[in-house]
Every structure is written in C-alpha cells, then in structure tokens.
Amino acid sequence: MVRERSPGVKLLLVSLVALALALPLLLVYALVNDRETQSFTAQQAITAGWGGNQVVSGPVIAIPYKRQQVQVTRSVEVRDELSLSPASQSVETTLEPQTRRKSIYSSVIYRATLSGTARFELPQELGVPGLSRADLMLDEAELRFGVSDPRGLQSDAKLSVAGGEIALQPGKGLASSNNAGFHGSLDWNGATPLDIQWSYGLRGSRSIALVPRGGTTEWTVRSPWPHPGFGGSFLPERSEVKDSGFTAHYAIANLALGQAMVLDDDPGMPMIGADGMVDTRAYEGASGATMAASIGLIEPVDLYSRVDRSVKYGFLFIGFTFLAFLMFDIVGGARVAAAEYFLTGAALVLFFVLLLAFAEVIGFALAYLVASGGVIGLLTAYSAAVLKSRRRAGFIGALLLALYALIYVLLSLEAFSLLIGSVLLFLALAGVMYATRNVEWSRIAQQAGEAAGG
User: Fold this and answer.
1) Average confidence score pLDDT of the chain
2) In this predicted model, what pLDDT tens digit does every residue of 122-147 receive, in sequence order?
3) Bridge partner list, 210
C-alpha cells in the first residue's frame, strides 16, 4: 500500500519542483539577450556602408594664432587655434526614413537634408590671456562642420558666404562629432559680422543628434516617421506627433550650454547610449560639458524588451498553475505526482521560447496569441488526464486563459503593472488561505504515528 503524503509534504514538494524550474527560466532569459544581441549585430550589418547614428555639429570658425610658450631655457613660438561659435544659428532638418530588412531582422535608415543660416561676431575679449585680435591669423580661418559618420555625406554640400560659394574639403571636423566632417577656407577680417548659408545631404540610421553651439540655436526637424523618440540633454520647445509624421522645434540658449563664444579647446564627443541616442550624462571635456539634442526613429514595438519582461512573469505562470493543481490535490482529492508538476512547468517555460521564436517572424501580439493558445490547449488536455476530470481541466484552461490575458495587459500597462501584479498576488494568497483554512497540514504523519503506537 502506497503511503499518502501529508499536505505539508506535498506543498514542500511542489515548491522544490517550482524552484528547479528557475534554471530553465534563466536559460530562456539568456536566450532572449542572445537573440537581442544578434538582432543588433544584424542591424549593424544592414546599415554598414550607409551611415550609423549621426551626430552633427557646427558651423564653427577655427581661427589659428601664434603664441609664445616658455620652455626650460627659451621661449618658442607655437601655433594654436580658437573655435568661434555663431552668435545665432537656425537649422532645418528633414528626415526621409525607410525600413530595411535582412532575414528576419529590420532596421530604420534615413536620408536627411540639413540646411541653415548662422551669424558670427568676433568679440573684443577672446578669453585667452595675452591674446589680442592682432595675433589672430584671420586670413587662414576655416569654417568647419562636424558629422560623426562621414560615410553618410552626400555630394550636394554647399556653403555660401556673402553671396559667394566656398569650396568644401573633407576632414577637419569637430571634436564634438568625433573629429569627422568637412571644412572650407575663409578670408574674414573680423571687423564686421559674418553671415553664412549652408546645406548638405546626409545618410544615417536610427537616430540623429545636433550639438548646439553659440548664442542661440534654433533647430526644426520634420519627418513622416510616426514614432519619434526625443532624448539627449534637451527636449523640444514644441512638438507635434501624428500618424502622418512629426515636427519638432528646439530653441537652445547659450546660458543652457554653459560655454563661452570663443573656446581654445573644442568640446569632445557626447556620450552615445546602446540605443543609439545621446546619453543624458554629459561628457566632461576640457572646455566643459558637451550636450546634444537627439531624435530617434523608434520601432513601434521593441519585441525583445517585451519578451524579456514577459519572462520575468514566468514564476507567476508556474506559481498559479501549480497552486491550482495543489488545491485539487489537497482539497479535491486528486493525486498529482511530482513528475506531472514538472512536465506542466516545462510546458509553461516552453511558452516563452515559442513566444520569442514566433515574435521574430510574425510580431509580438500575434506570437503571444499563437504561443499561449498552444500551451493552454496542451495543458488543458493534459490536466484532464492528470486530474481525472474534464470539469477540473476546464478550470485549469480558464485559469491559464485569464492569466495569459492578464499578463498581456500588464505588459501593455507599464505604469500600473506593479500595482496590478501585487493586488493579484494578494487576492491569490487570500483565496488559498480561505480554501485551505480547514486543512490539517500534518494530519497524515499524525495518523501514521497513532497507528504505529496502537
């Protein structure tokens, strides 16, 4: 005769089986991260040769000068440069996006058209001790533009000064754009303000960022992409996002930048996050913090982050299902073996693998429906055999259906997911406590002891 386990022992056994399933859940979590890494690598391959996340800066006038540097025994003349930012500038940007695919992966690329105007004024105080206007080599000054990935530059770049066009050369970009870009020679006496007009085409992917310089920077961006992401150190003064696209306008003052109009060391490259957007933590260069406004062309659904979040709810799936089986075992009298708990848990873990595999091909929502439908059907049929009752199996199927629906809602409502989840757990605990209020958790052991003593 097989000895019946006490309810307490059954609870302990079920807890151990659930704990053992933590390992496959962790493996699934690692699988999601691995596939996300592969997706990023594929996106990099898609954009190779086209242009990556672009950071643009400028225009800035680089003015060389000579100064005396005292060494050990003598004074030598060295050549250095000043960076003059515009007193005001206005930039117009149009982004034309498109989605490119490679196998099951996709990435957003764009063609950008940038144009603008800027006014330069040479101040009396240059900010360098002992340096005067007479020391400046204004006849060798250069207008410089920075582009972080010069592979995306097109052949239509134009620069006009006082109505005359200036020839442009590659290179000599700005430090704020990784020292890449283009430049043009300038002959300016510095006595009167200098007005310039410029335009160029640029290819890039996923995001574009502007490093503001000077007194005031006005930046207007337009695109038919309906899912923009605004980030970086500045947010738009006003923006309009519709299904037909978005428009964003930035107005950035010099006081917000904390930079002088004339710098003897160009600020460094702003920090770029893993998502391609400018990091809000500013890069501390020799001339202060490099800040930038960033706009990302976001995919409407980031399936890997949603699958990742769903895996974190894995113990809820396992816990509620095991709890229902345990109640039928303890209260209803159905005998459920440890192997049957383990097979049920394995099916629940397999759901996340199916979700990830299908999501990469047909999208998250449809993949969730297919994977959950398959697991619900499998466990409902299996429960009919384990619990020896179609009615009980129907309850398990209804429970799983409600649980998968609730988790999908939690994935959609990020702000209230913790609140809803904690209330759900409280109600589940209250229900278990009520259902087992009359259970004597050690009654089997007591009965065995009494039989042995008698």
Assistant:
1) 81
2) 887 777 777 777 778 888 889 999 99
3) 56, 293
**pLDDT recorded at residue 404:** 86
Q: Which of 104-113, 129-138, 392-401 has the lowest mean pLDDT?
A: 129-138
Look up residue 149 and give its DSSP letter: -
Give Cβ neighbours of residue 278 (< 8 Å, ≥ 6 apart). 55, 207, 209, 231, 232, 233, 270, 271, 272, 292, 293, 294
CB 76 within 8 A of CB 144: no
- Tell me the three state secondary structure of residue 392: helix
Residues in the chain, overall count: 454
Phi and psi dihedrals of 151, rounded to 5? -60, -25
Query: 303-317 in b/e burial notation, b at 16+ Cβ within 10 A?
Result: bbebbbebbebbbbb
CA separation for the pair 343, 403 (Å, rounded):
19
Q: For residues 226 and 298, what is the distance between their CA atoms, to the nearest angstrom?
A: 9
Q: At what angle do helices 303-312 and 314-330 cross, to 10 degrees?
A: 30
- Residues 17 and 319: beta-carbon distance below 8 Å: no
Pairwise CA distance, residues 223 & 96, whole Å: 6
Other beta carbons less than 10 A from residue 55's beta carbon: 28
C-beta separation of 253 from 233 below 8 A: no
Handedness of CA 253, 255, 257, 260 (dihedral sign): positive
Quick check: 228 and 298 in contact, CB under 8 A? yes
Peptide bond before residue 212 is cis, with ω within 30 degrees of 0: no
* CA–CA–CA angle 176, 96, 272 (5° rounding): 30
Cβ contacts of residue 347 below 8 Å, gap of 6+?
Answer: 375, 378, 379, 382
- At residue 105, φ and ψ (nearest 5 deg) are -105, 155
Give the E-state strand segments of 13-150 in sequence order.
54-70, 75-84, 88-102, 105-120, 141-147
Q: Give 375's contacts (C-beta < 8 A, 6+ positions apart).
A: 347, 348, 350, 351, 354, 400
- Residue tagged 């913090």 (tokens): 289
161-212 pLDDT, tens digit each: 877 888 889 888 887 777 889 999 988 888 889 999 999 999 998 889 999 9
Tell me the two tokens of residue 452.
């042995």
Assess whether pLDDT exceeds 80 at residue 418.
no
How do the domains of the chain map onto residue ranges?
7-39+303-444, 50-297
CA angle centred on 113, ends 107 and 119, rounded to 5°: 135
Structural tokens at position 79: 């050549």
Rounded to 5°, the CA angle 432-345-308 comes to: 100
